[in-house]
Design brief:
Elements (H helix, E strand, L loop, with lengths): L1 E2 L10 E2 L3 E2 L2 E2 L4 H22 L14 E5 L4 H13 L3 E6 L12 H15 L4 E5 L5 H14 L3 E6 L5 E3 L6 E3 L9 E7 L4 E8 L6 H9 L2 H12 L3 E11 L14 H19 L6 E6 L14 H15 L5 H13 L14 E2 L7 H10 L8 H4 L2 H11 L21
Helix pairs in contact: 1-2, 1-3, 2-3, 2-9, 5-7, 6-7, 8-10
This protein binds nicotinamide-adenine-dinucleotide.
Length: 418
């Protein structure tokens, strides 16, 4: 029998992806766990290849205890995996995911977390994962209580939350972030990832009313700063602690919808707050950074118009150049070539930001993308862009099309990962 989310027949099902308008609404338990394991294996191979040492192996610079906010998918999961498996850090992770039961499927991040905790335990690494609203003060308190129980302090805090809503912990008002353009109309092609259909001239909505302020409230840096107020007050931040939040700039063609749109305003707020947090951290000789990362197919980016076509085009160009990276490659480079360099210096741009979008934005790479983008049509899309690659990344996020998984096998327990 073939079912989407769950079987109607005594919990026996072959699980297939159920995709509606670029959103995959179910997840494959074994596939998610295997994808997490594949990422761990890749990171371990990098560790061996580059000779990266953990603190226990004598690397004084290696992070020992990391907090990862938004740990379950995308850049946050890659960060937790790199901190733990390449640098040997014990980790506390926070994410907001739907639990699975024996008969009901959970969200991909729930399975990823379960797999991470299992493999961390096998490797002798401590890990605690909270399935809580990271924007709430209750969550901050739970993390503080846990780290105090561990009897250590955080020397790395990754802020990788991506959410459409945030409830202000003081007022209990819920704010909603939107992806809209500001001031000028903007049209561009959108891509239906699964069937490869190009939807030309999709109009992006214009921001109105409180759209900008609300998006800044959700995706800006207010919550990141509040985390540091709490963590510092509780004295759980170690000497020399580093914190990093993730941002995106992207090419000119996406600026109207991204960098100069509502989400871009939130990212500029995040960048400004990094400076505030950096000064808060001075008393422990710590530092706060924003890292500008590459655009990738993750749960958040796959619903943004224009971005899908652009990423498909970028992936094809970068794969031909040998400069293509996914989440794990980006984050591994962030750790080894930016945060934990041999001389201890963190390379930043003139505005103090870490740039691991450098390969994406190389002028020669963008020139190739610019040449292809205007000539993409429905008839030639499969040759012009890396449709297969985009589709595989999209499916992998939900545990489908993952290398090494037998998808013909029936799943009998939706909460089991092996
Ligand atoms: P993602 O959707 O894969 O992950 C988001 C994480 O946030 C998940 O772990 C989710 O559980 C968690 N989360 C959401 N709401 C929460 C809540 N209320 N409480 C606790 N956890 C919550 O996202 P991603 O694409 O990896 O993005 C992470 C960051 O990287 C974002 O700041 C994003 O803007 C940035 N970024 C993304 C891209 C991209 O192309 N995807 C590029 C550059 C930067």
């Amino acid at each position: 029998m073939i079912f989407g989310l769950q079987s109607q027949e005594k919990n026996m099902a072959v699980i297939k992806p159920m995709v509606r308008s670029n959103i995959c609404i179910n997840a494959h338990p074994i596939g998610c766990a295997k994808d997490t394991q594949n990422q761990i294996d890749w990171v371990l191979a990098q560790k061996a290849k580059k000779g990266i040492k953990t603190a226990k192996e004598g690397n004084e610079k290696a992070p020992k205890t990391a907090l990862v906010l938004g740990c379950s998918t995308g850049y946050g999961l890659a960060s937790r995996i790199t901190a733990a498996f390449e640098y040997g850090a014990d980790t506390i992770g926070v994410s907001f995911e739907k639990d699975a039961t024996e008969t009901k499927g959970g969200t991909p991040g729930w399975y990823n977390n379960k797999a991470f905790d299992k493999f961390a335990a096998q490797a002798g690494l401590k890990s605690t994962t909270f399935n809580m609203d990271a924007y709430s003060d209750e969550c901050r308190q739970a993390v503080i209580d846990e780290i105090k129980k561990w009897g250590v302090k955080f020397d790395l805090v990754i802020y990788s939350l991506a959410s459409p809503v945030r409830t202000d912990p003081d007022t209990k008002v819920m704010y909603r972030s939107v992806l809209k353009v500001i001031g000028q109309e903007y049209k561009g092609p959108a891509l239906d990832i699964m069937n490869g259909t190009l939807m030309p001239d999709v109009v992006a909505p214009l921001a109105e009313g409180d759209d900008i302020a609300n998006t800044v409230k959700v995706m800006g840096g207010e919550d990141w700063e509040r985390w540091f107020k709490y963590l510092l007050d509780a004295d759980v931040i170690a000497e020399g602690c580093k914190t990093v939040a993730y941002s995106y700039i992207g090419p000119k063609l996406s600026h109207a919808i991204y960098r100069d749109g509502t989400i871009g305003m939130a990212k500029k707020d995040l960048e400004a707050r990094a400076k505030v947090i950096d000064s808060m951290l001075k008393k422990v000789n710590g530092s706060a950074y924003v890292s500008v990362n590459k655009g990738l197919i993750t749960r958040s980016s796959s619903v943004i118009p224009v971005i899908g076509v652009y990423l498909g085009c970028l992936f094809k160009v970068q794969k031909a150049e040998g400069t293509h990276e996914g989440c794990k490659e980006q984050i591994e480079r962030l750790f080894t070539e930016r945060l934990y360099t041999a001389d201890g210096k963190v390379p930043v741009d003139e505005e103090g930001r870490i740039r691991i979008d450098d390969w994406e934005l190389r002028p020669e790479t963008q020139a190739k993308v610019d040449k292809v983008m205007p000539n993409i049509t429905q008839d030639n899309i499969a040759e012009m862009i890396d449709l297969e690659g985009v589709r595989k990344d999209f499916l992998n996020i939900n545990g489908f099309d993952v290398d090494g998984v037998d998808y013909s096998k029936e799943v009998t327990d939706m909460s089991a990962i092996d």
